[in-house]
Amino acid sequence: MRRGGSAGAANGVSVVPCNGCTRCCHGDAVRLLPGDDASQYQTEPHPVLPGERMLAHRADGDCVYLGESSCTIHDRGPRMCQEMDCRVIAQGVSWTQARKLDANGRLPMAIWRRGRELLKAEKKNPPIRRSGV
Question: What are 84-123's pLDDT values in tens digits?
């Protein structure tokens, strides 16, 4: 969740308004991508993608890096964490697809729902876009 960047700018979405949201830190399988240094993180085998590594989880399913109110490594986290934008997921995945992904353990439905909530809120109150920014 890039809080000050442009995670979804190519899709017409800019700054991710996380506002303390940590839905993507609960039960999600954040995979390490090429360029991520696995030695910098506690990892475990990905349950769906053989040979891939993901951030480790506590017994309750939360990411080991989730603190009391937010991510403790966000500024140095894996690329997938930094680029996560639930609005982009909600734009590109239908409700039916999201339910199937949730049933297969690939996308927690709460992330898709949060993306839809944010998109609806933006539709009602579009963010102010400054020229030259």
Answer: 889 999 999 999 999 999 898 778 899 999 999 999 998 8
> Residue range 41-62: average pLDDT?
92
Residues whose CB falls within 8 Å of the CB of residue 21, separated by 6 or more in sequence, listed in order: 1, 114
* Bridge pairing between strands 53-55 and 43-45: antiparallel
Please name the residues in contact with 73: beta carbons below 8 A apart, sequence gap of 6 or more. 41, 65, 81
Q: For residue 14, what are its two tokens?
A: 């800019």
Structure tokens at 104: 């297969």
**pLDDT for res 8:** 43
pTM: 0.71
Closest CA to 117 of 97, 96, 89: 89
Q: Is the pLDDT confidence value at 12 over 50?
A: no
Q: How many Cβ atoms are within 10 Å of 58's Cβ, its own excluded?
A: 10
**CB atoms inside a 10 Å sphere around CB 61:** 11
Question: Are 42 and 36 within 8 A, CB to CB?
Answer: no
Task: Identify which of 30, 59, 48, 52 has the alpha carbon closest to the alpha carbon of residue 105.
Answer: 48
Q: Which residue has the tokens 């830190």?
A: 25
